Amino acid sequence: MGLLSNFMRGWEKRRLEALMEKNPRPPAEVFVRLAVIYQDTGDITAASRVAKRGQQLYPHNMDISRASKSMDKVVRELEKERLRQKIESYPNPILYARLAELYKTDGQIDASVKVCQAGIRAFPDYGGTYLLLGQMCFEQEDFPGALDYLEKAVELDRYNYMALKLLADTYTRLGRHNDAVERLEAILYFAPGDEQVTQALAVAKRAAGVAEPSPQEASSAAPPAPPTRVKEASAAPPPPAPPTRVKAQEPARVKADTVTREKKMKAAAKKQVAYEGALNILKTIDGVRGALLVDAYGLVIASYLDDSVDEELAGAMITNIYRATARSAQQMGLGTFEDGVIEGEEGNIHIITIQDMILSVFALATIRMGLLEKAIRDFAAVVMEVG
User: Fold this and answer.
1) For the chain, how many structural domains are there in total?
2) Residues 258-278: pLDDT tens digits?
């Protein structure tokens, strides 16, 4: 009976797949049934992909919506387990932030906070973890708490778009409109023309009583100065208090945590070496003028750039381009943005997503695309192996 059941399921799967290939808009029940078959056979990735495609074509179909949410939940649980194992073996701050984000998405706030706390203990200089804690405080309307975390995130990364924008919102909630103006202007330095930020800046200026310049004054005004980095003390201050109370640790536990943190930092250093080494793959291609790997928050992970280029500013600009493109792709019904090319007169910028990171390669227009594509695949293989 089991053999017959498997045969019938396989036959039905092939029939539905063929139907989807022939018909660009098959009936909604095709997506639901095929997603269930994929799930039953353990192919969760394919099940999720089919359910999402069906949701794009039939956004108001409740059966497809339920199937898509169910698949997403399963995918997130599998990803959580993968990240927990990675943190145990090859920890780095991005893994902590990614795991905390997944817990937050599923409404498991306490678990998300604990992961963030562990991430800060292991990697206190990574701004993405503070940003997540700031987001959770903001959503719980704990604006003073959000302020502490977000200011720390911006101190660590002055070009963090999300942290700057949410910090401006927090200042507004606390009535500090002049500070909100300053943070919004900092965003426009590396994301000029951002409509949401420009509108928010106009509102913040009115609230702060700042007069808007005339069109003539605006056109002749000098561009905004780059945001200044807060000078860090020789000994970094302890991170802000977490949203939840944590019991004091005993001396033996503190010593054990210190040893664990040192091991994790060594593992992260090895991973950084692997990323930097992977860039050598791209350096060997004639016509490549630079490369940049950033995380989802715009923080630079590895780079190969000319000394005259501000890598943090370049990372912020690439991340802003990616966000705008990804958002537009979703709004236009094109699905998830994975890669693209920005063409210029003298060269192109190739943008590729690798897991939750963004790789940008700066190359001459005359570059041999076959060689570049192979180098990018080889680079991605290294990143995914250690990621």
Assistant:
1) 3
2) 555 566 556 556 666 777 777
